[in-house]
Amino acid sequence: MKAICYTLKLMTNVIIPDVVTGDPNTLTSQWYIPGSVIRGVAISRYLANEENKQTGDEELRKLFFTSDLRFLHAYPSVGADQKRALPTPLSWRSTKDDEGTIYNLAVSDPGITDAKLERVKAPFCYLEEGIYKVEVDDWLSIHIKRSRAGGATDDESRLFKYHSIEAGQEFFGSILSENEEYLAAVQCLITAQPDLYIGKSHKIQYGHVQCTQIGLVENYREYSGTHNQESIIVTLLSDTLIRHPQTGAYQSDLADVIPAIPQQVFAEMKPIGGYNRKWNLPLPVVQAIKAGSVFVYDYDEKLWEQLQILEQKGIGERTNEGYGRISINWHFYDKKKVIPLQPPMPAQDTNLQKTDNADAAEKLVRKIFSQRCDEKLIESINEYSVTKGITKTQLSRLSTQIRHTLINKTGQSDQKN
Fold first, then answer.
1. Beta strand residue intervals within 55-182, DSSP E
2. Exposed (0-12), middle (13-18) or buried (19+): which is 67, by Cβ within 10 Å?
3. How far from 134 is each of 137, 343, 361, CA to CA, in Å?
4. Which of 166, 175, 238, 299 could form an S-S bond across to 137 if both were Cys, CB 3.0 to 4.6 Å?
5. What is the biggest distance separating any 2 CA atoms in the chain, rounded to whole angstroms?
6. Positions of E strands within 17-104
7. How many CB atoms lie within 10 A of CB 83?
8. DSSP assignment, residue 7?
9. Which of 239, 248, 190 is nearest to 215 (CA)?
10. φ and ψ at 173, to 5 degrees?
11. What stretches of 302-375 adopt beta strand conformation (E)?
12. DSSP assignment of 169-207, as one string?
């Protein structure tokens, strides 16, 4: 399969709103860049070109709607050689006492009681000789919602939080197609301006990313699998939307696309939404099978050949947006060791280099300090009730004074210690 591969570097924090956040005053981001976002950028740039406007809707539909172009999700990038992490399989378990060993229940029973096993918490992973657990750095920001008309704050003015993907991280994405002309057209649209503005609040301080290291790969594979004739392990590499052909209801299994009965299932459902900028309206929320879900089948040569075709095309709905990606025998092992992403420094080298570890430590301290200040600020504000009539200037001054007080107290405490 031919593909255009690219890296997205986050220049600012990014918010791709998740459907369910729990707290009504907190907007939580998804922890990857959906393929629909990059697809939307390509379509908008295509329409902005005056030459393309003259071709009409036929060429637009041919390129983005009826072609085999599939914009895969951009997952966290791993290592210096920019490897693409994948969602952690739901069949993986580790013990509470030893998180360095991961057992794969889809292959064998480790003989450990369920009370001692727990699911692997890392949302993404990368497989080599061992397993790399991949986390996404997040950032919590506090904002004040005010009346758009300005003037005094009204009853609707309140504090709210953005739980976003932190700037500075890199995500690896790809666009699949067998037609090089389609891939070349999309590559021209993206490379014309490497700076992209995506997600919520992208017109202000969020959503600025840079698309770099874009290029064509002839034989692209999302993973490295094995052909084992004992069983077939199908793992979802993205959320999957399977609709019943008669009732139209969204399914929690793969029976409508894979003609076999699974021997083991490790699956969950999750709500999926989206946003249509053309309509300026959110998409309907539907139930999808969660990425990382695992289905284990008895080996059958005919089934294996059918799965090879489904692996290329994807299954279910919205495959052109990166949904419905599957892997076959990607993690066919009973257990593996966890490999740290950043190995500890050698014992004889104790000097911190300003360009690497010292900068990382300083950034971490600033992040922890800022988050704690924000938490204390919220606690202090909640102790007081603000009656109607306070102006937004007074509220801003109060917020600034409380923050400065907390900072001064923290500094005095550090000096005493």
1. 70-71, 75-78, 83-84, 86-87, 92-95, 101-104, 117-119, 124-127, 131-134, 138-145, 158-165, 170-177
2. middle
3. 10, 14, 19
4. 166
5. 74
6. 26-28, 70-71, 75-78, 83-84, 86-87, 92-95, 101-104
7. 17
8. E
9. 190
10. -130, 170
11. 326-328, 335-337
12. -EEEEEEEES-HHHHHHHHHHHHT--EEE-STTTTTTS-
Q: How many residues does the chain have?
A: 417
DSSP state for residue 56 in the 8-state scheme: -
Closest CA to 274 of 14, 19, 15, 45: 19
What gap in Å lies between CA 69 and CA 71, rounded to an integer? 7
> Is 310 in contact with 258 (CB distance < 8 Å)?
yes
Strand, helix or coil for residue 8: strand
Q: Give how far Cα 164 sits from Cα of 121, 148, 222, 315, 393, Å.
A: 19, 24, 26, 30, 27
Q: State how beta strands 70-71 and 170-177 pair.
A: antiparallel
pLDDT at site 54: 57
Q: Which amino acid is at 64?
A: F
* Amino acid letter for position 87: P
Compare 256 and 160 and report the one with higher pLDDT.
256
Torsion of CA 417, 138, 378, 205, to 10 degrees: 120
Q: Which pTM value belongs to this model? A: 0.78
Give CA–CA dist 266/294, Å, rounded: 5
163-180 residue pLDDT tens: 899 999 999 999 999 999
Residue 182's closest CA among 4, 35, 313, 49?
4
How confident is the model over 253-299, as pLDDT tens digits? 999 999 899 999 999 999 998 877 777 788 888 999 999 999 999 99
Burial of 272-281, coded b for 16+ CB within 10 Å and e otherwise, reads bebbeeeeee
CA of residue 132 relative to chain centroid, distance? 17
- Helix (H) or strand (E) segment spanning residue 50: helix 50-55
Rounded Cα–Cα distance for residues 405 and 31 (Å): 34
